[in-house]
Task: structure prediction
Amino acid sequence: MLTADEACDRARDLVERARKAGADAADAVYGASSAEGIQVRLGKLEDVERSESEHIALRVFVGRRSASIGSSDLSGAALEELAARAIDMARAAPEDAYAGLAPEELLTHAPWPDLDLCDSHEPSPEALRDKAREAEDAARAIAGVTNSDGASASAGRGTVALATSHGFAGAYSSTSHSISASVVGGEGGGKQRDHAWRQAHHAADLPAAAEIGAQAGERTVARLDPGRIKGGAMPVILDPRVAGTLVSHLIGAISGAAITRRSSFLLDKLGEQLFAPGIRVHDDPLARRGLRSRPFDGEGLATAPRDLIADGRLTGWLLDSASARQLGGVPTGHAARGGGGAPSVSVGNLHMAAGTLTPAELMADIADGVYVTELIGQGVNAVTGDYSRGASGFRIVNGELAGPIAEFTVAGNLIAMFAQTTPANDLEWYRAINVPTLRIDGMTVAGE
Result:
């Protein structure tokens, strides 16, 4: 894997080759990663995995035509051929009035803020194995756990670099550490499974492996012998494990691509009151050690903290340069690049601000409702906002959890769900999307 400086030089070199080959403009994105993971099951080593990848992608513009191409061969001869092929592809492509690099006057330049994304500690395979065993041992020690799907520990490193023909060049690296455990409880047809998982840039930010394992075991045992529910219209409580999906649907609906295609249920809601007054959804791509932190976006623009929802109101769209041109706006620093192609939209570290009530207070007046810990399926219509997903969790009776339930469906419309959302005060800060326990009134629950 190249260093950040080497990666930046390689991307600049490819852009220069593209210009010499006839491109009017070009950008290149380099991405590389390496990871090592150890999995154990029933106390025995089950799998040792080591992966390494390296890829560079080139996007060229010839007039209003563009094309993208990528390669894992970074030799000079391969890059020369890559540039020539990209030009040929672009000349055969249809014109796109909105395609192009980001506005030059908006480009950011070094020095960028130190986001502390790299951990100097690199655990040995033996240390990873010990963490995995510690997690599984703790999970299996919970009374009621009868089997294991295994536990794993991994560590990795990655580098991203971007260079453009109009003056941007930058790169950054990050590390990753994770621990997970998944176990089975019960016997026969009554078996249940659950898991726990944590990830961080720095190993020191992870809980003890035994804590993660015990959480997996406790979650599994809590699900044993689930009942069924008849359903009806009732309040739904979303556990923080799944509450972030509500914000994910919001992000998809306010992306520039969804708006330009007129395929968003929030198409005409700019500036409107979506949530109750006081609710805030904040994006911070510059949070130190944040899982989605980055000093610049996929087009070389600065990233910055921003309220997506302020006092319950939608503040604006998430725009890359192409969608900004189409909508007559300004790119917002949310462009993202994958293995190649045109930018998409991505956010940084999101959170919904905590409310004032504890989770217990949030459900205290619910005579009959459900507490959801797992959502199943993808039953969400991005155009209409209609929402219907399978779920499991716990029944709420007279303000208290009253035993596990499974095989039910929660349904509604996202616009109405947003309006009826109340956050609890139990916000935690370790996910990419951090959301407290949420109460949503007026949903339809279907069971038996």
